[in-house]
Design goal:
The complex is a heterodimer of chains A (about 450) and B (about 260).
Chain A lengths: L14 H27 L15 H12 L2 H11 L9 H22 L8 H4 L6 H25 L8 H37 L11 E2 L2 E2 H29 L6 H36 L16 H19 L1 H4 L2 H28 L15 H24 L6 H4 L14 H19 L2
Antiparallel strand pairs in A: 1-2
Helix pairs in contact in A: 1-13, 2-4, 2-12, 3-4, 3-7, 3-8, 4-6, 4-13, 6-7, 7-8, 8-9, 8-12, 9-10, 10-12
Chain B lengths: L10 E6 L8 H9 L19 E6 L9 E6 L9 H5 L5 E3 L6 E3 L9 H5 L5 E3 L26 E3 L4 H13 L13 H5 L5 E5 L6 H6 L4 E2 L11 E4 L3 H9 L5 H5 L2
The chains are: A mainly alpha (about 450), B alpha+beta (about 260).
Chain lengths: ~450, ~260
């Protein structure tokens, strides 16, 4: 039915099977949409956040997906600025993942804030001292950059390419890609950093508060480096996942090896700086505010194991695996290490958000617990479902992995089946003619 | 010679914990004065709106030496690197340069709750639901204070409407400066034990400044360096030590062995 929209030379499942694949995700999307409606229409009392646990699972997961989505900017940086041409094989996927992560995070943020219609206030009368202002500006701008980077992927669709203006536009856009990659890197550096700075500047939360390096707390730089480490690993994992689901080879082994090596290099730098930062915090910053650091770990659920897991188990260990070409060549170790890197980044964001709020500050305060409500979980499930749907549709109708055709030539011929109904042949052409007419109006 | 320079106030308070009986009159008076909507049945201590929150703290000593102190806690009006001020992305938190009062502009608040995360005293409150008053209760709303809507943060502002009223009265009398007797926040006025002393900390002869300078006066989390303008006072050593303890232990661990 949609065969004429599918890129040439690649094999895709039947339209029916594709719809069947999307069905559960649409169900998840609907439940999430209902939860979002409840929060927006009736209020945030539908969540389990409260005055003491003012940030919950949404902020934690927002920080996580933004870190995981860093693969978009970092792969773009390596491809267009550092000129590592091998990464052209995954750049489209990285851009889609980035777009999903960032747009999803912004969407959840819009539900999370009490007055989403006032979001423009930050642009109108911004507090230039606030890390959140920097995050808002950079995040919004970078989302626009990601949309611009996503556009050529869509325009490269088999039918859309037939429109000459689109082709010219795509060609011109392609020439500008290094510029957008540069802008994306610049913006990402600041918003990834500012997300770390969000917590590092909290003087009233000695668990999160860090010394300043220049005008930023150390968490600013730690968040940038950790995101740059996690991004490539997440690109590896998602690409591998798509390979597993589609049962196809999508990229060459050298691409995985390069991504693994880059991730390992960034991770080892992160582990080193994080260790130094932790030592300074334990011995100087925290005691200076009247809070001996060991007391943060006195509570059973958040013992020192969490620090060990974050730095050694999910930091040093995968870094060593990814840096060793011998260990990295073992696929199980490679993807296992990439998975651990992503878990580590998730744990770090959890510690900075949830653990910071769970620990009491006042001497008569109790340790706080928080369990998200179903509405909070469902709202984030909405983002996951939206991501899967957007990725699936893009993968089906656009060339996400340029090496796919070449790597799967032996697997079979064209995607267009032998029998094709007249209707299915006509519909896309009619649609193309319509689009052409529309474009010619301008 | 007449000058255009206005007097620089630094309003603050001292709460005498030896006098506080934990009756909660300050909490109620604050809510009535500032149009805080009544709580719904499902409200807990963690999601209600209590600009002035009273907590019972036990000494942990064995009977018969066990003691309890009630700690009323509102916005501590931090003076140095005010944690909530710098974090707000859209300038919804401000400090009045004339009075030193840390204010909140609910009309500008996005409801991101970053300020609540930043506040070490947990003295900021979010409107998790629409405020609702029953029919009769709308008659007792304070016309000088705008009720807040769902999705914004609010907190103690030392009864800003009363400051305005005092200023208007002073202006009507042809004066630029307010009479200290005309500006008394609701919690101070309502306390049956007169445990709260309010006034200008810049005036060394004011009762509040004298009490704040007393050797038995202290501030919570003083080592954070935020210089709160709300002081506490107690003659009991364990109470003063408790404020300095600043440990991240649970209440049970801290005060019950």
């Amino acid at each position: 039915m949609d065969n004429l929209l599918i890129p040439r030379g690649v094999r895709r499942t039947s339209f029916g099977s594709f719809l069947l694949w999307l069905l559960p995700w649409f169900a998840m999307l609907s439940v999430g949409l209902y939860a979002i409606y409840l929060c927006l229409a009736e209020g945030l009392f539908h969540t389990n956040m409260d005055n003491r646990f003012a940030f919950g699972i949404w902020i934690f997961l927002d920080l996580t997906v933004i870190a995981l989505g860093a693969g978009a900017f970092f792969t773009g940086f390596l491809l267009y600025i550092v000129r590592r041409k091998e990464l052209a094989a995954v750049i489209n996927s990285a851009v889609i993942i980035g777009l999903i992560c960032y747009s999803g995070a912004v969407l959840v943020l819009m539900v999370d804030v009490g007055q989403p219609l006032r979001a423009w206030f930050t642009f109108w009368h911004p507090n230039t001292h606030s890390m959140l202002t920097e995050v808002t500006f950079c995040l919004t701008c970078y989302l626009v950059v990601l949309l611009i980077e996503y556009l050529p992927i869509v325009i490269k669709n088999r039918q859309l390419r037939q429109i000459p203006k689109f082709l010219v536009f795509e060609f011109e856009l392609h020439k500008l890609m290094p510029v957008f990659a540069g802008i994306g890197t610049f913006l990402s550096f600041f918003h990834q950093g500012s997300l770390g700075g969000l917590f590092g500047v909290l003087r009233g939360r000695p668990f999160a508060f860090r010394e300043e390096l220049g005008i930023w707390p150390s968490t600013f730089f730690l968040f940038v480096i950790s995101a740059a480490a996690a991004g490539p690993s997440f690109i590896m994992l998602t690409t591998r996942l798509v390979e597993k689901i589609t049962r196809k080879r999508l990229v060459r082994e050298n691409v995985y090896q390069l991504l693994g090596k880059v991730s390992g290099l960034m991770l080892v730098a992160y582990v080193l700086l994080k260790s130094i930062d932790t030592l300074i915090w334990i011995n100087s910053t925290s005691p200076g505010t009247g809070f001996p650091a060991f007391e943060y770990y006195a509570t059973q659920s958040f013992g020192t194991w969490i620090l060990f897991t974050e730095i050694v188990l999910f930091g040093l260990l995968p870094a060593l695996v990814l840096l060793s070409s011998r260990l990295r060549s073992d696929r199980r170790l490679l993807f296992g290490a990439a998975f651990m890197v992503c878990c580590g980044i998730m744990l770090n964001r959890f510690v900075m958000t949830i653990q910071t709020l769970a620990l009491p500050t006042l001497p008569f305060d109790a340790f706080l617990t928080y369990l998200p409500s179903w509405q909070e979980v469902a709202a984030f499930a909405f983002v996951i479902a939206y991501g899967v749907i957007l990725y699936s549709v893009t993968y089906r109708y656009a060339v996400v992995f340029p090496q796919e055709r070449e790597l799967n030539l032996a697997a079979g011929p064209e995607s267009v089946p032998a029998k094709q109904s007249l209707l299915s042949r006509l519909r896309p052409r009619f649609a193309v003619q319509l689009i052409q007419k529309f474009v010619s109006l301008f | 010679m007449e000058t255009n320079e206005r007097k620089q106030y630094r309003f603050g308070m001292v709460i005498d914990l030896d006098k506080c009986s934990g009756c909660g009159a300050c909490t109620v008076a604050c809510a009535v004065e500032n149009n805080v909507a009544p709580a719904v049945p499902s409200t807990t201590t963690r999601n209600g709106l209590t600009w002035m929150n009273v907590t019972a703290v036990h000494s942990g000593a064995a009977y018969p030496d066990c003691e309890t102190v009630f700690v009323p806690m509102s916005c501590q009006q931090c003076e140095n690197e005010t944690p909530c001020l710098t974090v707000c992305p859209q300038n919804a938190v401000d400090i009045d340069p004339v009075t030193g009062i840390v204010g909140q502009v609910p009309q500008r608040c996005l409801g991101c709750r970053y300020c609540m995360t930043a506040c070490p005293y947990h003295a900021r409150y979010f409107n998790w639901r629409d405020p609702e008053w029953t029919d009769g209760m709308t008659q007792q709303l304070n016309p000088d204070v705008a009720p807040r809507m769902r999705g914004v943060v609010e907190k103690c502002n030392f009864c800003h409407a009363r400051l305005h009223a005092a200023r208007q009265k002073a202006a009507a009398n042809g004066s630029r400066e307010i009479d200290p007797a005309d500006y008394v926040p609701a919690c101070v006025e309502s306390c049956p034990a007169s445990a709260i002393t309010f006034g200008d900390l810049n005036n060394p002869s004011s009762p509040v400044a004298i009490l704040a300078a007393d050797k038995n006066s202290f501030r919570f989390l003083a080592r954070l360096g935020t210089e709160p303008k709300v002081h506490y006072h107690s003659s009991k050593q364990w109470v003063r030590e408790m404020a300095e303890r600043s440990k991240t232990r649970t209440q049970q661990e801290a005060f019950h062995g």
